Amino acid sequence: MESVGNYNIVKCFTQKNLTHTKYGVGSGKVEEIKEFLQNNKSGQIVVDEHMTPKQMYNLEKSTGVKVVDRERLILDLFYTRATTSEAKLQIQLAEIKYELPRIRENARLLIGSERPGKGGSGEYIVDVKFRDLKRRMGFILKKLAEARTKRELYHDHRIENRIPIVSLVGYTSSGKTTLFNLLTLERKETSENLFTTLSTTTRSFSMGEQKLLLTDTVGFIRRIPTYMIDAFKSTLEESLLADVILLLIDSSESADEIRIKYNSCMKVLEELNVDKEKVVIIFSKIDKAEFDNVKRIFTELNIDPVQISPKTGYGINKLKKMISHKILI
Question: What is the count of structural domains for the chain?
Answer without folding.
Answer: 2
